[in-house]
Amino acid sequence: MKSFALKVFFRIPIWFLKILYFNKKSVFRGHQFDIQSQALISLQPKIDLTEIPDDEIHITRNLIIENRIKNRLSLYPNMPVKTVDNYINDTGKLLLREYTPSEISSQKAILFFHGGGYVLNSVSTHDLTVSYMADRLQTKIYSLDYSLAPESKYPVALDEARQAFDWLQTQGYQASDISLCGDSAGAHLAASLVHKILHSDSTKIPDSQFLIYPMCDPACDSESFNALSDGYLLTQRTMVWFWKKLGNNLIKDNDDSFNLLKLDSNSKLPNTIVVTAGFDPLCDDGESYAFLLHKRGDVVKQLHYPKMFHGFASVTRLKAAKKAVDDFLAEYKKIL
């Protein structure tokens, strides 16, 4: 949708959308899909990413990044948030954008990883989302512009995430001062980094992890994947494609930094919050990961939003999405 059309859309009263979609209601597990979210998704252009050749993915990616920045779906923060770009590796090309809110109430730092299936998006597409989070949490956030697939296969992004985690410790933060956060693929990257650290130096695990609708299992065969395979922005077919582009067709199902549900460590994980959405194909995987941690005796909480969809955290101009984001950020702030 174009910027002007979006302005018009967000001015349409919810009661009017309920009339328009009265005969198109979508219900799953006893909950009705949020009408405003349903309407917005129905108006989005359909793109089958799986048909794009590898050597053309960068073109589509750049167009998506450009459109996401131009057609703003996230709210601005209430107070100004200052940004500084840090380049942290030897090549001088690995960007870690620093967000400093007007008011800071926690001396901890958040290391954030954006979503996009490891194939799409960037620090820039999530700029407003992270600014909004920094303002609400009153905490510094560092957002990593990690390398994307298929140009950079697993574990390139994971290695860069570890570089960012280590760099923060050179800036005066202890590992116990750092919280990891991400959405979708970014949530997978955050948890993946925790798993990697557990196997290398369990004395330096981060303070906490906040995982927003995480990718977990490359099988993509849960009940929610099969029931919500199409029509809710993220499709089952696209998720299978994302995993394939990340994994280079190699079998890594027993690598617990790749398949999170194969967690193989007796070390205690940091305090964890997992966010799931009812109309998200990834819903059951996120719940499975939360339950796995619960069975291990780790401190974990699942926050479930039954009327929302995959990606809602970056669409806070939707009324229900804003309410859900404000709610989960309030929970996140309690553990920072």
Instruction: Note the beta-strand portion.
Output: 15-25%
Write the H/E string, N to C: HHEEHHEEEHEHEHEHHEHEH
Count the strands? 10
The DSSP helix count reads 11
Rg (CA only): 19 Å
- Examine the secondary-structure arrangement and name the CATH architecture: 3-Layer(aba) Sandwich
The CATH class, by name, is: Alpha Beta
Number of domains: 1
Biggest sheet, spatial arrangement of strands: 3-4-6-5-7-8-9-10
Distance between the termini: 37 Å
Helicity level, as a percent range? 25-40%
SSE topology sketch:
Blueprint: H1 3-9, H2 14-20, E1 27-28, E2 31-32, H3 35-42, H4 57-70, E3 81-87, E4 95-101, E5 109-113, H5 127-137, E6 140-144, H6 156-170, E7 178-183, H7 185-200, E8 208-212, H8 223-227, H9 236-247, E9 271-279, H10 283-296, E10 300-309, H11 319-334
Parallel strand pairs: 5-6, 5-7, 7-8, 8-9, 9-10
Antiparallel strand pairs: 1-2, 3-4, 4-6
Helix pairs in contact: 6-7
Provide a compact summary of the structure.
With 336 residues, the protein is of the alpha/beta class.
Name some characteristics of this structure.
alpha/beta; Rossmann fold; 336 residues; two-stranded antiparallel ribbon
